Amino acid sequence: MLITIPDVLTPEQVTQCRQALDKAQWVDGKVTAGYQSAMAKNNMQVAEGDPIARQIGELIVGALSRNALFTSAALPLHVFPPLFNRYAGGQSFGTHVDNAIRQVPGTPHRIRTDLSATLYLSNPDEYDGGELCVEDTYGVKSVKLNAGQMVLYPATSLHHVRPVTRGARVSSFFWLQSMVRDDGQRSLLFDLDLAIQRLSRDHPEHPSAVQLTGVYHNLLRQWAEL
Question: Residue 154 carries which DSSP code?
């Protein structure tokens, strides 16, 4: 399930992030790549220990906690501290799959990467190329969003970033461990949640809304891992 989350950040917050990132320490993006990913990865990344990355990451996590669509789609249990990358001058990231387990820097904690997220901090007219291409059972989906928008997709997916041939593509990327490990189960819960919301909005007194809400929570109770 690939989902676009609109308006994660306001235009003012995007500007704040970009101005801060201009002052950050940028390093070779291979520092966070696994063995196979390192062979395909060609970009720049803000150093994980940079206080600017920590500050902006907290802003992003706070914005996500207030985003109902994100919560419904991801059912997040743990969010990996957001990282930041930049593609320019023909840089790209070849086809790869994300590591299954990530250690949270500076802590003994690990998270299982059920979902991958890319939050765009550049608008499409600022650069050419740079599409995120995600492979699933229905083919390859190409994603290029406005600044402040985010795409969420299963971390099990093969994906790549096409070369940026003009300008610079700046974004935040990170992973999530969901309360519901299985992508198919998460998709069913997401569809059911959206249907309940529409029913409650269009027919607020309909008794089926309560019944379906019960079904949703009983399925979540059955599938959730805490």
Answer: E
